[in-house]
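FORM 7B - TANDEM STRUCTURE REPORT

SECTION 1: FIRST PROTEIN
SEQUENCE AND TOKENS:
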Amino acid sequence: MDNLDRKLLSALRHNARAALSDLAQELGVTRATVRNRIDRLEQAGEILGYSVVMKGDTATEPVRGLMMIGIEGRGTERIMRQLKGLNTVRSVYSTNGRWDVIAEIGTDSLEAFDEALTQIRRFDGVSTSETSLLLSAKK
């Protein structure tokens, strides 16, 4: 993958429905070059597919944060299932290092966020946690 491929992928991430002619103009190459590059990236498995992002998908709760969770014993799978069942938990990640699991939490208010944290801290097996509020998205 060269610099042109990376620029093309960046443009497609911004707008996967962009016309080949628009992509070619943006990248300073021909339509045929863009088409060939896209075909090659798809065949190589670099581009796995395209998706639609709906307005509702980008709407975020006003209060969002990451909760790093330390788990004692062998309760990780059980706690991950419990986290996935909470409507305030957007994503659950396994990780390495100091923390066993990271949960992305989103709520409508700080009070609801605090309630979600309290609920998770009460899970049997949660030994420690640290939470960071997400202030603004830069990308």
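SECTION 2: SECOND PROTEIN
SEQUENCE AND TOKENS:
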Amino acid sequence: MVAPRRLTAAVALAFVLLLSACSSSGSNQLDAAPSIEEVLTRSSEAMAEIETVRFVIEQTGAEVFIDQGMIIRFLGATGRYAAPSSADAVVQVDALGLNTEVGAVAIEGQIWITNPLTGAWETAPPDFAFDPTVLFSPTVGWSALLAGGLTDARLISPDPVAEARQQVRGTIAAATVSTLTGGLVDQESVIDIWIDGPSGQVVEAAFDVGEGVELTSWLMVLSDYGAEVTIAEPELGS
């Protein structure tokens, strides 16, 4: 009768050890999950260090204009950024009912655009509002936003698109909305930000501003971090 008791005790001990191992493994997995503070800090640091990036901005809904005369309606932009403060972009606009594209170059606060009618480069008028370099400014752009510009920030998990991405949702102030839209819109909003887990870099962001017929929706996609980018001052009149 002794042997069976020893066998039973051995089985019980093995079972206890197995439960302990599973519990420890589960605890480690839980401990490995990053907190919202860790995600934001890591992403803020990553966005502060970027040298180049490509970006796409899509805007739908209510009309948004890039000039004070409310003649040139903004539809979207595709562009590139190079640190510390240079960007070029092709801006999709509607000028008096005509869908066209306007080239834009911004370097150290100076902006040039192509004339919507002639296509020639010229210095942007003072009321030209779109400046994509502010998106990446270390003091007001992505890095600053992630370091403290989100109110009630929380992780939305799991990301239904890709496990490697982390989705953050929070409220941003009107001044931050102005930064993200290149100075075109300024009203408090709730934003969703998708962050690449391995690198901490922002890959996508979406938010709405206004309501009802005045609602304008924004989608931003960032890609090709570190790609070779050269941005030069355009030749006026060419």
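SECTION 3: OBSERVATIONS ON SECOND PROTEIN
The two ends are 101 Å apart (CA to CA).
The CA atoms of residues 62 and 216 lie 5 Å apart.

SECTION 4: SIGNATURE
Preparer initials: ____
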